[in-house]
Write a structure and sequence with these properties.
This protein is about 60% helix and about 15% strand. By secondary structure, it is an alpha+beta fold. Helix 1 (about 1-10) packs antiparallel against helix 6. Mean pLDDT is about 80; it is low at about 200-260.
């Protein structure tokens, strides 16, 4: 959603400014000169006509600057980020087993997330600078300086309407929000990789090995069980003389009676 807002607010932009040139000869004036421009902001290709205040002759002028590179780079990153997010969501939901197979999915996801975080920062910064230049190039006061009639004090040139740049400002904000979102997601993707899991297992393995060596010591396998003096008591468990005394207990009284 953040990626959609980023490229929609920038790629779908169109603006317009209006100028007024009031010549000394009122019949030669043009009080409504509309100049429209849009994404990708190749302003040097935006032409408009203005009166020269010298008869009916008019001149064709163009805005200054080409800011398409930063704008198109920003929109391209936003579109690819949206497509990758959509594909990753499908994999997370329907192909979780294949995603975790051989730890390849989390590693790829981690690398792509780091790359997109860097690209969001670069593209947002480049577009922020490009937007600043677009605002200067489309400032009505700056555009009036291009008109030759406005260089004569007898003529009055005024800006009528400035372009609305609120959606472009919003695109820059969403660009940096996407950078924060993707950069913060690096930690959560890193936790899915084997690097994080192996780092957590080593201390546990060490703790598991220590009781093993302790149990193999002389405490649990003590000398009492192996010597037979206590756990295997020969005089009590395998009774000899005492066990035979039971037969004396059973036969002794009989023989004693017979003797009597």
């Amino acid at each position: 959603l953040f990626a959609i807002f980023a490229f929609a607010t920038c790629g779908g932009y169109s603006g317009e400014l209006r100028l007024s040139v009031d010549c000394a000869n009122k019949s030669e004036s043009d009080l409504s000169i509309d100049i429209a421009f849009a994404y990708p902001f190749r302003l040097h290709q935006v032409n408009f006509e203005a009166p020269t205040c010298e008869g009916k002759r008019r001149e064709t002028l163009a805005l200054i600057g080409d800011f398409s590179s930063s704008a198109e780079f920003f929109v391209t990153i936003a579109v690819f980020a949206f497509l990758y997010s959509l594909a990753a969501t499908v994999v997370y939901i329907f192909f979780q087993n294949k995603y975790r197979e051989n730890n390849r999915g989390p590693l790829i996801d981690f690398i792509v997330t780091v790359v997109f975080s860097f690209l969001w920062l670069v593209s947002s910064s480049a577009w922020a600078k490009g937007l600043s230049d677009v605002k200067v190039a489309t400032d009505p006061d700056e555009v009036l300086l291009l008109i030759s009639a406005c260089k004569q004090q007898s003529n009055k040139c005024m800006p009528v309407r400035s372009p609305v740049m609120s959606s472009l400002n919003t695109s820059v904000v969403f660009g940096y929000l996407n950078f924060i979102l993707w950069a913060g997601n690096i930690w959560f993707v890193f936790k899915e990789t084997g690097w994080h899991s192996s780092g957590q297992r080593h201390p546990a393995d060490t703790m598991e090995k220590q009781p093993g060596s302790y149990n193999q010591g002389g405490y649990n396998q003590d000398s009492y069980g192996s010597a037979g003096g206590y756990n295997q008591p020969g005089s009590y468990g395998q009774v000899g003389e005492y066990g035979q005394s039971q037969s004396y207990g059973q036969s002794g009284p009989t023989s004693f009676t017979n003797q009597i």
